[in-house]
Design a protein that fits this description.
This protein is mainly β. Strand 4 and strand 5 (60-66) form a beta hairpin. It starts with 5 loop residues before the first strand and ends with a strand. 0% of the residues lie in helices and 53% in strands. Pfam families: SoxZ.
């Protein structure tokens, strides 16, 4: 299953007018195993979840999210952002097994 982990994606407009509200959408491939399920042999599948998502814009904190086992496989996250300045939005996902993935998207504000 490890080959199906990662590949984070961010989708948002690359340009916007100052003050415009844009939608940021993201997806990451991750099993989000709760630690409560069993495999075909009847053994418990260990918990493997994304614990934190940290989002910055121009290296300034925008959102810090703590996730738990209640988040589905291949989690999708969407939020709105007011376009005030041009810059780079960066998202970093960290899981309970030490996995870290990041992606970024640029925004030009006119």
């Amino acid at each position: 299953m490890s080959e199906n982990i990662g590949n984070p994606m961010i989708r948002m407009e690359s340009s916007a007018k100052k003050g415009e509200i844009i939608e940021v959408r993201s997806l990451i491939m991750h099993p989000m195993s709760t630690g409560l399920m069993k495999d075909k042999a009847g053994k418990i599948i260990p918990a493997h979840i994304i614990q934190t998502v940290n989002i910055t814009f121009n290296d300034k904190p925008l959102l810090n999210i703590d996730w738990s086992t209640a988040v589905s496989t291949n989690p999708y996250l969407a939020f709105k952002l007011r376009a005030e300045d041009s810059g780079t939005l960066k998202m970093v996902w960290k899981d309970n097994k030490g996995g870290v993935w990041s992606a970024d998207a640029k925004l030009t504000v006119a």
